[in-house]
Amino acid sequence: MQALKYKINVIDFSDFTNLESIGKGKIHRAAWNDCKTTVALKSFQEKNDEFFKELKAFIDFYKVSCHPNIIGFYGVTK
């Protein structure tokens, strides 16, 4: 998986339960069993090298921000 190339955490999809569609597009609320927390899962069509490069830059930018209004990023799943 290209996510590993960019050192993006990969989470097994089977770790999520109770998927519920929220909002428009491909966004779902799910229970993350390992962390006992509710998360949002967003689906992306683009999965090429350029996509992961931009995603990694986005993650690195927001990783330094410790603000209550910025949603945390935990990783990707397949």
Automatic annotation (TrEMBL):
SUPFAM superfamilies: Protein kinase-like (PK-like). This is 24317_t:CDS:1. It comes from Dentiscutata erythropus. The lineage of its organism: Eukaryota, Fungi, Fungi incertae sedis, Mucoromycota, Glomeromycotina.
